[in-house]
Specification:
Elements (H helix, E strand, L loop, with lengths): L1 E2 L21 E7 L2 E7 L6 E5 L13 H25 L5 H22 L4 H32 L10 H26 L4 H38 L3 H5 L4 H27 L5 H4 L2 H20 L8 H4 L20
Antiparallel strand pairs: 1-2, 2-3, 3-4
Helix pairs in contact: 1-2, 1-9, 2-3, 3-4, 3-5, 3-7, 4-5, 5-7, 7-9
Amino acid sequence: MQHLSSLRSFSFQDRGSTCIPGTLQIIGYQFNSAQLLVFHHPSRKGSFMMSEKGEYVLYHYSPSIVAAVVAIVVFAILTGLHTYRMIQTKLWFCVPFTIGGVFELIGYIGRAAGHSSPESLVPYIIQSLFVLVAPALFAASIYMTLGRLIRAVHAESLSVVRVSWLTKLFVCGDVFTFFIQGGGGGIMASHDPDKVKMGQNIILGGLFLQIIIFGLFVVASIVFHLRLQKQPTQEAYAGDVKWQKMLLVLYAVSAIILVRNIFRVVEYIGGNDGPLLRVEWPIYVFDALLMAATMAIWFAGYPTLIRPAKTLSSDSESGIQLPETYIGMSTK
């Protein structure tokens, strides 16, 4: 970007109150044949970018169409694979995970549209909101898997929390963070810098809560894992249920989503003018790539791992009663 103007004094209406002359710093930039103004006021944290027409600028860069198309193709393939696997295995508790893949796909379609219309609000809202909340949908299926795993090996007594409450607590917390982040993302779509800041703070709260919930989930999983190793049940000892592999999958996807959420926290703490929002590559490296890896790992270690081997060939046939070991896999 080419620097166009030097620092100068300006007057503006601060939060609808009195005018404060000589305090607003304006720095001009040339960007995509349009002049942009970066505003900074000492009484406000951070800066915000506006065009010469006085419009709030949504992107600090021109969104890459190539990167967006690659993301679209990757998430389309992964979502298609997950949809097929879910229908094939009838593991309907994986519906949120599959919907999360659809959200990622829609988000990057919106990002591709932002390349040709960077000033358009609708594509910006789509890419911002859908990419932001998709991991919360992944998390819902991840949380539900642990309870089903515990029941599959008949190790309810080894769970930190009563199994009947385990899934409910984590999923309800996840739904709560979903709506917090969604609400914050909607507020951020406003052209008002004050509302953008408020939306960022709301999203930060949702992300922090999601990190805490994920951390508690990992602790609950590890405690159960250690207890089951010391006191294996007959079902766990028999080896029909691949509980150890499934736990490793849960650890892997949980760690990846935690890293992504920490990146998002740092991003939003930096504000709309922060270093992570001034360039595009971080969202692809620390969000798109990590979420694609999450979907790939989940597909490779699909929750069929916690089905006893003897049920795999028969549970897809209608009218056949599932063995008692499989009762914990019900999708209620």
